[in-house]
Design goal:
- The strands form 3 sheets. The chain has a two-stranded parallel ribbon with strand order 1-4.
- Helix content is 49%, strand content 7%.
- It is built from 8 helices and 6 strands.
- With 224 residues, it is mainly α.
- The chain folds into 2 domains: 55 residues, no CATH class; 132 residues, no CATH class.
- The longest helix has 21 residues.
Length: 224
């Protein structure tokens, strides 16, 4: 469970509600596994904040935590989660290459699509460095080369085209488009508000993923 609050006072009030609910229903929160994080506004943040306690135990302040498998950081950057996915992809690559080395190429391609194209929560990546994103792309390409027994210097676009398999950029476009489609089809009013905003980070990334490198975007203001 995650509680979001604009102030420490409001967060304490939310925690009081949770504690009252737990007492009424015979539940207990594990305060030692609960953490507190203060999001930054640009480069600005509070150095010292009042103590926030859960069940009488002060919460430990952290600068990142994992929620449902996705790393959330106080500066809202996604490099940490991209690195997690890069390490996970490397582990899956070694596992597939070792166990299925003697399988046919058709089987290997099927396994690659099933285990190496998921990129869990990649649709949420909106703020990251080019280096972290490029490292993941290189790891994706190398995984396919290792699994298929291809030379390290062979063309990435050529090998994916020959195998009729999506390259890294195609996978990212499909994942992002799929999430936006699900958000737009949701009956949740809050989600609809976020997805319809053209200035939202998700929409900005969707446009970046789908626009042509030679595309020129014209922005004008018309006054009536």
């Amino acid at each position: 469970m995650v509680l979001l609050s604009p102030s420490v006072g409001a967060l304490r009030h939310l925690l009081e509600i949770c504690q009252s609910y737990a007492v009424a229903h015979g539940l207990r929160y594990n305060a030692l596994k609960s953490e507190l994080m203060v999001f930054k506004s640009g480069s600005k943040t509070y150095i010292e904040i009042p103590v926030v306690s859960l069940c009488g135990t002060p919460l430990c302040r952290v600068n990142k935590f994992k929620y449902l498998g996705h790393w959330v950081t106080d500066n809202l950057r996604d490099d940490c989660d991209i690195e997690r996915e890069c390490r996970s992809l490397s582990v899956r690559c070694n596992l597939l290459a070792r166990r299925f080395a003697r399988c046919t190429n058709t089987v290997k391609i099927t396994l690659f699509k099933a285990y190496c194209q998921s990129f869990y929560t990649c649709s949420l990546w909106t703020s990251y460095t080019l280096r972290a994103y490029s490292d993941l792309r290189v790891q994706y390409n190398n995984t396919f080369r290792v699994l298929m027994g291809l030379p390290r210097r062979c063309s990435a676009s050529g090998m994916f085209a020959e195998a009729h398999t999506d390259d890294f950029y195609a996978v990212m476009r499909k994942r992002c488009a799929s999430m936006l489609a699900r958000l737009r089809g949701s009956s949740n009013g809050m989600l609809n508000v976020f997805v319809d905003r053209w200035d939202s980070p998700l929409m900005y990334r969707w446009v970046r993923l789908h626009k042509s490198p030679n595309c020129i975007i014209l922005h004008t203001n018309i006054n009536f």
